[in-house]
Description:
By secondary structure, this protein is an alpha/beta fold.
Amino acid sequence: MKKRLLTLFFLLLVFSMARGEDNYYVMIATAYSWTGNRTATGVYPDEGMIAVDPEVLKLGSWVHVEHYGKARCMDTGGDIRGHRIDVYFNTQEEAIKWGVKKVKVKIL
């Protein structure tokens, strides 16, 4: 019985950390810049676009990314799975400066 309760508590804790009650996710955000390729939705990338796992955030949806701002989910990526996103910057220098951040992503 104790083991079941602990398992249930752990699952509830993990779920609440992944998606808060205010309709946001805590995610790891990396950055990318111009590759010369179109996004998964067929458009060229521009600032304000992010790559997501479409099983977590739907392509075409709008979000607010902490430290980045309002963004549209327009791309996917080979390493973008689960609670991980890639924010787009126009220059490689800005993408490198961004680094890797733990951010809140609020669905708008």
